[in-house]
Every structure is written in structure tokens, then in C-alpha cells.
Amino acid sequence: MEWFRKVLDEEWEIMPAGGLTGEAYFAKKDSKQLFLKRNSSPFLAVLSAEGIVPKLVWTKRLYNGDVVTAQKWLEGRELRPEEMQKQCVADLLHKIHHSTELLHMLLRMGKKPITADDSIFTVEKRLHANQLMGTSIEIKDGLNYLNTYLPIARQHKQTVCHGDMNHHNLLLADNNQLYLIDWDNAMIADPILDYGRVLNSYIPKENWKNWLKNYGIELDNQFLIRMYWYLIVDTLTYLSFHNERNESDKYEERLIALKELNYQMKLL
Q1: Are strands 24-29 and 32-38 parallel, antiparallel or unpaired?
Q2: Looking at residue 155, which CATH number applies to its domain?
Q3: Which of 73, 107, 127 is the last residue of a domain?
Q4: Is residue 41 scored above 90 in pLDDT?
Q5: Are 36 and 26 spatial neighbours (Cβ–Cβ below 8 Å)?
Q6: Is 218 left (phi over 0), alpha (psi -120 to 50) or beta?
Q7: In this structure, what CATH number is given to the domain that contains residue 66?
Q8: Per the database record, which ranges form the Aminoglycoside phosphotransferase domain (predicted)?
Q9: Cβ–Cβ under 8 Å, residues 63 and 101
Q10: Are both 93 and 184 inside the same structural domain?
Q11: Which domain holds residue 152?
Q12: Of 18, 20, 214, 264, which residue is the least packed, with the fewest Cβ within 10 Å?
């Protein structure tokens, strides 16, 4: 917390904002309230200008080269899981995925688009490193589907993606403005990475067609193949992640999820 004293005087009350990194804090002084973070991405300024995250108030560089950002601290709450079905979520994702300003900024920052070929290469390499390639029929079937449907997975333009779409990262302010926060996993990739996870995690299957219509696309068989393809990539990645941390319970949960995804792919 001492590094924030480099930019704020002693009259500010500073409280940890939680999270794993310990790099974020809330600050309060009289009627002023700020959300402070160290070494946020330069991407934050464009997200603020686009109204996707709470307003960026100032940015300051410390003597050691670290950068501290201050955003407006908004009263509000995270979305509830059932609220992920709302039109405002589809509208916000559509805005993000179609923003040339966000895309140009990530490209200027040196971000390279992640292709379907990149995804399958990375997941196979990590599975090899974890010695998981031949350990279960679920992993074998998942990899078979990835290789079989790779040509279809390639068939979409790449946009800016949030990369961690869950209801905890959606902030509904008291003025009813919806924000998408925590952009540490931002990437340039197939936008189905974002809305595919929303559909699979939060939207009843009978409502998929209508939710996608609200977003602006049609539901067809090739869409479903692409969606399950990337969900399988995601699940295989998490299998390696949990294996590396000896989290056997979570590993088994992901294996069950993979079995269900393989089954859904088989039906297509």
C-alpha cells in the first residue's frame, strides 16, 4: 500500500479492493472516491473513453517506472447469473467486438491475433507437458474434435475479446450503466470466446437463438461447432491448469464438463 502514498496524501483512506494480485485499492477522501490500480494496461484509457469501464480520472508514473491509475469509484453491484440473459449484456459485447478503436489500440500495444491454429497448438503443447495426452478417453475425443473441425473454427474474423466473461466482471452501476471490468486477459481472437461462454454458462439452450439475435447474429450448425470447439479448448486448458496445481477435485469437474462438450459436438 505504501506506493499509493507516493500519489495520495495522508488524508486519503485506502482499503484493499481484493483480488489475487494485491495491486488494487479503494481510496476515499471526503466526497471523493477512487479505484486505484498499479500497472494497469494502457488499454484502460481507450476502454474508459468508450464507456466500457468506469471513467479514468488520472494516470501517474512513480519514480521506479510503475504507473498508477485512478478510476471513478461507482456505487453498484455485479450482475446476478440470471441477469446475463439481458439485452444490455448482448449490447455491450456487440459494442466491444465491433470497436475499431479498441482493436487498433491492442494492435499498437503489440497484441497478435490468436488464431484457431494457435489455440490448438498451445493446448496440445501444454497437455504434452503435463503428460495428459493419453490419460482419458475424454481428452482423446476432445482433441479429435479439435483437429476434425479446425477448418470450421478458422472461419471467423478476429476482434477484441475480454477473455474472462463471467457475471463477476459485469458491474451494474446505480445509474443503470453496465460496465465490463478486469481486462487483464484481453486478446484479439474469435469473439465466440466471449459470447460462447455466456451462452454455455448462463443462457438456457432454448433461449440461445433469441439472445444471439439480440447480439446480432444467427444461430446455425457451424456456429455451434465453433462454439463447442472453443469451449473444448478452454476446458482442456483448465485440465492442464488444475493438473499443474494438483487440484484433483477441480480436474475431475473439468473432465466431466469435457465429456458433456464432446457429447454435444457428437450430436452436430
Answers
A1: antiparallel
A2: 3.90.1200.10
A3: 73
A4: no
A5: yes
A6: beta
A7: 3.30.200.20
A8: 18-217
A9: no
A10: yes
A11: 78-267
A12: 20
Q: Which pLDDT value is given to residue 89?
A: 97
Do residue 107 and residue 59 come from a single domain?
no
Confidence at 65, pLDDT banded by 50, 70, 90: confident
Catalytic option among 30, 91, 117, 164:
164
Q: Of the candidates 148, 165, 140, 117, which has an alpha carbon nearest to the alpha carbon of residue 225?
A: 148
Assess whether 66 and 199 both reside in one domain: no
Sequence-ordered list of residues with C-beta below 8 angstroms from that of 16, at least 6 positions apart, any chain = 1, 22, 24, 25, 26
Q: Which residue has the cell 491509475?
A: 69
* pLDDT tens for each residue of 135-144: 899 999 999 9
The domain tally of the chain equals: 2
164 is a catalytic site residue: yes
Q: Are 128 and 180 within one domain?
A: yes
Last residue of a domain, one of 40, 73, 106: 73
Show the cell assigned to 59.
Answer: 494516470
Closest CA to 190 of 221, 220, 228: 228
What confidence tens digit (pLDDT) does each residue in 193-252 have?
999 999 999 999 999 999 999 999 999 999 999 999 999 999 999 999 999 999 999 999
Q: Assign residue 183 a region (left: φ > 0; alpha: ψ between -120 and 50; beta: otherwise).
A: alpha
Whose cell is 448482448? That residue is: 90
